[in-house]
Design a protein that fits this description.
With 209 residues, this protein is of the alpha+beta class. Helix content is 31%, strand content 31%. The protein folds into two domains: 129 residues, Alpha-Beta Plaits (2-Layer Sandwich), CATH 3.30.70; 60 residues, Double Stranded RNA Binding Domain, CATH 3.30.160. A seven-stranded mixed sheet has the order 2-3-1-5-4-9-10, with helices on both faces. The protein is elongated and about 75 Å long. It holds the Pfam family RF-1.
């Protein structure tokens, strides 16, 4: 599906077990609404919370057309109003979690910054599996990221595989850098937005109001 592509982080913001339960419930609600809106969404990563069936955070890959309105309806803090299922006499009923969207760079690496090198494919223990240089090493000169493809006896096919793997590895690094650089800023933002939730849910059944 063409259109904008994002990574969505749903996080408890270091909140207690109740917030982690809210993350797990909100992740299901988010995926359901994304599907209803005609978007493609799947969970890329889950970080378990302190209690069974809870999540401290979830990372969702989402893409499709008309993403802007969907993003605006979700990004920010989300409030869950309910009694604590873990602490019977606890007076607090308001539990906040955060939702943030990180736009993904789905473009390809420029061929001008990639160096391809033909090398001999090798088997276990360094044994050469053929006498011709059919394997291909691809290196992104800007970052130093390097991959090797030797799956095929065709140098052309190995070159295509190497490029595909290099782009995947490049996107992984971009994602990690984006998450690291934004984490502290997002926690500050979440603290500021607790009094103005973008969505509100109520009760154990997690019904939106």
């Amino acid at each position: 599906m063409r259109g904008n592509s994002y990574l969505v982080q749903i996080t408890s913001g270091r909140g207690p077990a109740e917030c982690c339960l809210a993350v797990a419930k909100l992740t299901k609600a988010f995926l359901k609404e994304a599907k209803k809106s005609g978007l493609e969404a799947k969970v890329a990563e889950r970080n378990a919370g302190p209690e069974t069936n809870t999540l401290s955070s979830a990372l969702i890959e989402i893409s499709g057309k008309e993403m802007e309105n969907f993003r605006k309806s979700w990004e920010g803090s989300v409030l869950w109003i309910t009694k604590s299922p873990y602490r019977k006499f606890h007076k607090r009923k308001n539990w906040f979690v955060g939702v943030r969207f990180i736009e993904r760079n789905t473009g390809k690496i420029s061929s001008r910054r990639i160096e391809f090198q033909a090398v001999r494919a090798s088997g276990p223990g360094g044994q050469h599996v053929n006498k011709t240089s059919t394997a291909v090493r691809a290196t992104d000169l800007a970052t130093g990221i390097s991959v090797l493809a030797q799956d095929s006896r065709s140098q052309k096919q190995n070159k295509a595989l190497a490029l595909e793997r290099l782009e995947a590895k490049f996107r992984e690094r971009e994602l990690a850098d984006a998450l690291d650089s934004a984490s502290e800023q997002w926690e500050t933002h979440l603290n500021l937005e607790r009094g103005n939730p973008i969505r509100t849910f109520r009760g154990p059944e997690f019904r939106e109001i």
